[in-house]
Design goal:
Distance between the termini: 29 Å
CATH superfamily of the largest domain: MoaB/Mog-like domain
Number of domains: 4
Structural class: alpha/beta
Largest sheet: 6 strands, mixed
CATH topology of the largest domain: Molybdenum Cofactor Biosythetic Enzyme, Chain A
Number of strands: 28
Shape: elongated
CATH architecture of the largest domain: 3-Layer(aba) Sandwich
Radius of gyration: 31 Å
Helix content: 10-25%
Strand order of the largest sheet: 7-4-6-5-9-8
CATH class of the largest domain: Alpha Beta
Length: 401
Amino acid sequence: MLTVAEADDLLASHQLSLTTETVAFTEAPGRVLAETILADRDFPPFDRVAMDGIAIQYDALADGQTAFSILAIGRAGEPQQPLPDPTGCMEVMTGSVLPSGADTVIRYEDLSITDGIATLTIPAAEISRGLNVHKQGTDRRTFDVVLSAGVRLRPVDLAVVASVGQTSLSVRKRPRVAVVSTGDELVTIEQTPLPHQIRQSNAHLLWAALHEMGIDASIHHYPDDVATITSGLSALLSGHDVLVMTGGVSAGKADYVPDILAGLGIRKHFHKIEQRPGKPMWFGTSPDNQRVVFALPGNPVSTTLCFYRYVRPYLETAMGLPGEPPLYVQLAKPVTFAPPLTYFTPAHLTTSTEGTLLAEPLPGSGSADFTNLTAADAFLEFPATESNFPAGTVVQAWAIG
């Protein structure tokens, strides 16, 4: 049986490699960029007026002039105009090109304008040369990097892409994922369960968690029958990069999944981690690492923990992202756990007035108590080397959603 750290190392050493594809700009939100985006010109591309007001030549102000005749108006979107007279001024709008011959902009808020004369209403000493001018190339120069590969494209990133006129982008392919549940006791959410049955929930949890990552996954269910599971998994492995399974991996008489996967050529890298909950987790790959299978324990809390602790970081890395790191939180209450293994418990997180992230443990009634998770924001991770964790102890936490 592996430690948590050993499981992490094995996952990292058998990483799925996804190729790239080109998508239209309109299909890019949320995708992971696979190329470097360069500035196609200076940012800004000209000396840009940063405030509505008047453009002047600073030397006139330095010579003691505080009133300026308005000689023209410069609007955003118009070609650059010259300042007609170095002792006069031009009204200018935010985003317009600074007139040639001018080097400083004074805000309307600092002026009084009467009969075409703009008079300074604040001390001249508060005005410096270049005030309210966004100089050409201040942000980026032509061919500077504006976005690096490996970022998930947010709205602010796409605004930068649009500004350089790029209509298509190279992005990492998303993994083709199938979610698989097994068990005779499970019925669909539309069905009314018999007294000895329950509705499927783990598969929908995994589907929703993958959807939140931007991954479209299909859902499949098989009864506890070796031939049916074998046929179903064989078909899924031929058309998917990743299978995320729930159930059928423990030590029960109907836990067929590990043997079936071995028979289908999936090499086991580990089965069972020294942790609670989620001990029976299974991970394996095809010999070429092009097919990956996570088989998670069927208890809902175990399924949830194993997905957010192991599967999500793995898939993020596969898509070219840095795996989401743990949070560091301070316990609001003491926690005691005796067995020498890594212990995880759901927790509700709040922020103190001092800015500290506080964790309120929510132990619930065991690994089947998934309703307890609706109040949780994260799983706390307690190392196997200790058993008593007083209030105020700082521990790692893995965010849920």
